[in-house]
Mitochondrial import receptor subunit TOM9-2 (Flemingia macrophylla), 99 residues
Amino acid sequence: MASQGRRGGVSLPERPSNNPSSILAKITRSSVVSRGKEAAGDAAFVAKKLLRSTGKAAWIAGTTFLVLVVPLIVEMDREQQLNDLELQQASLLGTPAPK
């Protein structure tokens, strides 16, 4: 028992392989199936490359946005707050609002 390679579980019965020219064997050896497998492999390779390059482009775009655009937005918000404060002070002092 210990010399066998299997451990525990239930094993399925062996399929008889006395008919090597069965329909399933013919289908798996056909050129259509081999071309289909090759096409699926090529499609998976292209999808992987596309996903990787898309991820790199998203990383570059996100980093660029954080470095260049976010500080600009913060500065524009500060400027708007300063303008609002000046308008509020001008209205309290009774002077005409700057244009």
Notes: The radius of gyration is 35 Å.
